[in-house]
Design brief:
five-stranded mixed β-sheet, Rossmann fold, alpha/beta, about 15% strand, elongated, 2 domains, about 240 residues
């Protein structure tokens, strides 16, 4: 990893902290394990003294009253308390966890390899250092599917990482109607759409798995057992 990775990440984190309202004063350096502070290139970026101090739970004072501390996904806790998180060696799992964490004021993601966080990048269209930022694109181009997903969202409990069986059953019926009417379902796009719309990542993942099961059906689903499938479909089209 480039030697400037940490310096750039810290600069972006301080910028985000200064722009949040209320102003964030806590920057968290997040790694998968504490071991990564001492035995990876990150230790060289930080300096041996700083990396050892952070691994012992110490905080550092940065500019303008901002402090830096270290955490792992296990020690970060339920809430980030208005913190900017620098996710070092970031991958999709780490970033999905942060997407569902209350109190995260901003995320600076530093992947180890290109391609490690492509789904997250597509989901949020973040600023990428050195690259031109394109206009944010819809995750799902089909407006009928979007309307259908909005109907699922409206009646589902999206604040938990587990979908209620009733909500799963309703989503299954919606996806069966869409497939029977010839619409192409993309489970990954559905998951990202749900997270962007405020679903907890675990619930969004379960929703995408329901869609994936419908996609894998060998034949078009029968709609005979569903309540008013054609009327519901027409409402999504309108």
């Amino acid at each position: 990893m480039d030697v400037t990775s940490w310096q750039l990440a810290a600069a972006y984190a301080k910028k985000i902290a200064g722009e949040t309202s209320p102003r964030a004063t806590d920057i968290v350096l997040l790694t998968h394990t504490k071991h990564q502070l001492d035995h990876t290139s990150l230790a060289g970026h930080l300096g041996s003294g700083a990396s050892k101090a952070l691994s012992k739970g110490m905080k550092f004072n940065l500019d303008d009253g901002i402090t830096l501390r270290h955490a792992t996904l296990r020690t970060l806790g339920y809430s980030a308390h208005n913190s900017v998180v620098v996710a070092f060696y970031a991958d999709e799992t780490m970033l999905e966890t942060l997407d569902g964490k209350p109190g995260v004021a901003g995320i600076v993601a530093v992947p180890e390899f290109d391609g490690d966080i492509d789904h997250w990048i597509k989901r949020w269209n973040p600023v990428i250092h050195g690259a031109r930022r394109e206009a944010t694109k819809p995750l799902i181009d089909d407006p009928v599917i979007v309307k259908a997903l909005e109907s699922v969202t409206a009646i589902s409990n999206t604040s938990y990482d587990v979908l209620h069986p009733r909500d799963k059953e309703h989503a299954d019926g919606v996806f069966r109607i869409l497939r029977a009417k010839g619409h192409m379902l993309d489970p990954d796009a559905i998951k990202s759409w749900a997270i962007r719309e405020g679903w907890k990542p675990g619930g969004a993942d379960e929703l995408s798995k329901v869609a994936a099961k419908v996609v894998k059906l060998k034949n078009k689903p029968s709609l005979g057992a569903l309540h008013d499938p054609h009327g519901r479909y027409e409402r999504w089209r309108s």
